[in-house]
Design brief:
Elements: H1 6-14, H2 21-34, H3 48-59, H4 64-72, H5 75-78, H6 83-89, H7 92-103, H8 114-129, H9 131-146, H10 153-173, H11 177-191, H12 193-227, E1 232-238, H13 241-249, E2 261-267, H14 270-283, E3 285-286, E4 292-293, E5 308-313, E6 319-326, H15 327-335, H16 340-343, H17 348-358, H18 361-372, H19 376-386, E7 391-395, E8 401-405, H20 410-417, H21 419-422, E9 425-430, E10 433-434, E11 447-451, H22 460-465, H23 469-484
Parallel strand pairs: 2-6
Antiparallel strand pairs: 1-2, 3-5, 4-5, 5-6, 7-8, 9-10, 9-11
Helix pairs in contact: 1-2, 1-3, 2-4, 3-4, 3-9, 4-7, 6-7, 7-9, 8-9, 8-18, 8-19, 9-10, 9-11, 10-11, 11-12, 12-13, 12-14, 18-19, 20-23
This protein binds manganese (II) ion.
């Protein structure tokens, strides 16, 4: 990658927010002065690091305060400046952001030491104060992972593991897919170097082999879209190496991975997404059960990702996934919450925090867990089991996709889809077969809940069987309210 300089940073900022340039220059000069005698392990001047972090933030079209904080993010920890001085020189926002990032020194999920637990809780809950702190921290981690080769092999493994456990889920929850997949690949490279190299080579071969086929599809689809005056842009993408690794680990064969190769088709508006879908199905045979509509409200993913997915047989019977979305949806798909900087401009900061509170399931669960547990160990443990594990996806009888943490039971499902009626659950069916309430949900299960007014209601056993804090809390308060009556 090219070395980032203050000139390249300024040039990038010029493209979307020229008003920020004087402040950014000022922040750069201060950071450059404060870090002047410091060097990175690579031997480069230290300033390269904050410059690169600011550059990553500028790629997301970050606002002026965030850019300044990105440049200054290591000054409180590594130099003599005080928070108050940053506030005086810039403003309260910049000072709070830098301070927030500094406090998130080190999260450690495996440690049982009180100090570490308290710290971990702080980093996780800081997202509730100002999500920009987490975004700066993600950019910081991304640049550190990109330059990990200069660290000892112990540090490489330790940082990679922490990245997979904490920063990848955080990036996922705010919908920042681009950062997420780069962090995943960088981590795998150090955690499983042999597997990584093997897959990197296989991926290269597949990309080479499928190039003509994908170009042909791209070309044909584009002609039909242009004929219909649908503004469009089409890109080829292959799954990231970590994603492929995960699928193979689950026992899949390389050629069975249906989204290994994909065409990303961007159009101007929602209606044209569906017209594009029609065009694709007209040209190529779809694999019927591989169609997913993440645009319509009821199927919306909890991290706000929106797209139509349909997997088709392309030329040479090659399986190709197509992802159809609008240009704005694509910004959200790549950058998640941080896309708001670009889409909502001046109001971005406010809208980001508001959307996070209202729409992102992650945030709701986090707030619930934070309110319930006073003990740091219990808090960290619950967050780890509930939020930082993989999810399973089940269907309601009418085809709505429900996302739950791995290990969730029928009880969690019932409370997630309808907390009021869940108290009256008497029976449950998975794929038309009756199951017990402690049945552990698997991917693609179609689940039907039967309720009855005559139900005796939830018991303490339900509370133990539930895995999510949401279901547990609902059950607990229902049982308590019954006791009062
Ligand atoms: Mn840093």
């Amino acid at each position: 990658m090219n070395q980032i300089t203050i000139e390249s940073l300024i040039n990038l900022i010029k493209t979307y927010n020229p008003d920020a340039i004087p402040q950014v220059k000022k922040a750069y000069e201060l950071a450059n002065h404060l870090h002047k005698d410091q060097y990175r392990q690579s031997g480069e001047p230290y300033i390269i690091h904050p410059l690169s972090v600011a550059y990553i933030l500028a790629e997301m079209h970050a606002d002026c305060d965030t850019l300044c904080a990105g440049l200054l993010h290591d000054t409180l920890e590594d130099t003599n400046i005080k928070k108050e001085e940053i506030e005086e020189l810039f403003n309260k926002n910049v000072a709070t952001l830098v301070d927030g990032v500094t406090k998130l020194a080190k999260m450690n999920f495996s440690s049982k030491q009180e100090q570490n637990l308290a710290n971990t809780r702080k980093i996780i809950t800081s997202i509730t104060e100002d999500v920009r702190i987490i975004i700066i921290k993600l950019a910081d981690r991304l640049h550190n992972m990109r330059t990990l080769e200069y660290k000892s092999s112990f540090k490489q493994k330790e940082n990679s593991l922490e990245t997979i456990e904490i920063f990848v889920p955080l990036a996922y929850y705010i919908g920042a897919y681009r950062i997420k997949s780069e962090l995943e690949d960088l981590s795998l490279r150090y955690l499983k170097p042999d597997a990584y190299k093997g897959l990197e080579e296989q991926k290269r071969v597949i990309e080479e082999e499928s190039k003509d086929c994908l170009q042909e599809m791209l070309y044909k689809i584009q002609i039909l879209l242009n004929d219909r005056n649908i503004p469009n842009e089409i890109k080829v993408r292959t799954k990231n190496i970590y994603g492929i690794y995960k699928r193979l680990e689950q026992g899949n064969k390389l050629h069975d991975i249906h989204d290994l190769l994909a065409l990303k088709i961007m159009v101007d508006e929602v209606e044209n997404c569906y017209r594009t879908l029609g065009i694709i199905h007209m040209l190529y045979n779809p694999i019927n059960h591989r169609f997913k509509d993440y645009i319509c409200e009821r199927n919306r993913k909890t991290n706000m990702y929106q797209s139509l997915h349909t997997t088709v047989f392309g030329p040479d019977e090659r399986i190709v996934q197509t992802q159809i979305r609008t240009f704005d949806m694509d910004k959200t798909a790549s950058f998640g919450l941080t896309a708001y900087w670009d889409i909502k401009k001046g109001e971005a900061r406010y809208t980001m925090q508001k959307e996070l509170t209202n729409k992102f399931q992650f945030f709701k669960s986090l707030t619930e867990i934070n309110n319930i547990f006073t003990d740091n160990y219990d808090f960290v443990n619950q967050v780890k089991t509930e939020l930082f594990t993989n999810n399973v996806y089940a269907y309601t009888p009418s085809g709505i996709i429900i996302e739950l943490p791995l290990g969730s039971t029928i009880i969690d499902y019932a409370y997630k889809i309808d907390p009021e009626n869940a108290h009256n659950m008497v029976d449950a069916y998975v794929n038309d077969e009756p199951v017990a309430f402690d049945y552990e949900i698997k991917n693609k299960d179609r689940i039907k809940i039967v309720t009855s007014k005559l139900s005796p209601g939830p018991t303490e056993e339900w509370q133990t069987t539930a895995k999510t804090i949401y279901a547990k809390t609902k059950i607990k308060s229902h049982i308590e309210s019954r006791k009062i009556v």
